[in-house]
Design a protein that fits this description.
Largest sheet: none
Helix content: 55-70%
Number of strands: 0
Strand content: under 5%
Mean pLDDT: 84
Distance between the termini: 20 Å
Low-confidence stretches: none
Shape: globular
CATH superfamily: lambda repressor-like DNA-binding domains
Structural class: mainly alpha
CATH class: Mainly Alpha
Order of helices and strands: HHHHH
Radius of gyration: 15 Å
Number of domains: 1
Length: about 80
Protein backbone atom coordinates (compact mmCIF):
# COMPACT_ATOMS: atom_id res chain seq x y z
CA UNK A 1 0.00 0.00 0.00
CA UNK A 2 1.40 3.39 -0.92
CA UNK A 3 1.26 6.42 1.29
CA UNK A 4 -0.73 9.50 0.37
CA UNK A 5 2.47 11.34 -0.49
CA UNK A 6 3.70 8.55 -2.78
CA UNK A 7 0.30 8.24 -4.46
CA UNK A 8 -0.10 11.96 -5.19
CA UNK A 9 3.46 12.41 -6.40
CA UNK A 10 3.32 9.37 -8.70
CA UNK A 11 -0.05 10.29 -10.16
CA UNK A 12 1.00 13.93 -10.68
CA UNK A 13 4.07 12.76 -12.56
CA UNK A 14 1.95 10.36 -14.64
CA UNK A 15 -0.03 13.30 -15.97
CA UNK A 16 3.22 15.21 -16.51
CA UNK A 17 2.46 18.24 -14.33
CA UNK A 18 4.79 20.27 -12.15
CA UNK A 19 3.75 20.88 -8.57
CA UNK A 20 2.81 24.44 -9.53
CA UNK A 21 0.69 23.34 -12.52
CA UNK A 22 -0.96 20.66 -10.43
CA UNK A 23 -1.81 23.13 -7.66
CA UNK A 24 -3.35 25.52 -10.19
CA UNK A 25 -5.48 22.77 -11.76
CA UNK A 26 -6.72 21.50 -8.42
CA UNK A 27 -7.38 24.96 -6.99
CA UNK A 28 -5.08 24.64 -3.99
CA UNK A 29 -1.97 26.54 -2.99
CA UNK A 30 1.40 25.23 -4.11
CA UNK A 31 2.34 24.80 -0.46
CA UNK A 32 -0.52 22.29 -0.03
CA UNK A 33 0.82 20.10 -2.83
CA UNK A 34 4.33 20.33 -1.41
CA UNK A 35 3.17 19.42 2.11
CA UNK A 36 1.29 16.38 0.83
CA UNK A 37 4.20 15.16 -1.28
CA UNK A 38 6.59 15.68 1.65
CA UNK A 39 4.40 13.49 3.85
CA UNK A 40 3.36 16.21 6.29
CA UNK A 41 0.69 15.03 8.70
CA UNK A 42 -1.06 18.28 9.56
CA UNK A 43 -3.22 18.61 6.44
CA UNK A 44 -6.68 19.98 5.73
CA UNK A 45 -8.86 17.08 4.56
CA UNK A 46 -10.84 19.35 2.22
CA UNK A 47 -7.62 20.37 0.44
CA UNK A 48 -6.43 16.77 0.25
CA UNK A 49 -9.76 15.76 -1.27
CA UNK A 50 -9.52 18.51 -3.89
CA UNK A 51 -6.25 16.98 -4.98
CA UNK A 52 -7.44 13.38 -4.82
CA UNK A 53 -10.58 14.22 -6.79
CA UNK A 54 -8.32 14.78 -9.82
CA UNK A 55 -7.74 11.01 -9.76
CA UNK A 56 -11.27 9.95 -8.81
CA UNK A 57 -10.45 9.34 -5.14
CA UNK A 58 -11.36 10.88 -1.79
CA UNK A 59 -10.42 10.39 1.84
CA UNK A 60 -13.04 9.84 4.47
CA UNK A 61 -12.97 9.37 8.19
CA UNK A 62 -13.43 5.81 9.44
CA UNK A 63 -15.64 5.50 12.53
CA UNK A 64 -13.68 4.23 15.52
CA UNK A 65 -16.29 1.47 15.99
CA UNK A 66 -15.28 0.04 12.60
CA UNK A 67 -11.60 0.20 13.51
CA UNK A 68 -12.22 -1.58 16.82
CA UNK A 69 -14.33 -4.28 15.16
CA UNK A 70 -11.61 -4.91 12.54
CA UNK A 71 -8.93 -5.06 15.23
CA UNK A 72 -10.93 -7.63 17.20
CA UNK A 73 -11.52 -9.73 14.07
CA UNK A 74 -7.81 -9.91 13.25
CA UNK A 75 -6.13 -13.29 13.83
Amino acid sequence: MSTLSEFVKARRKEVNLTQREFAERTGVALTVVRKIEQGKTNLNMDKVNLILSMFGHTLAAIPSVTLERDKNDAP
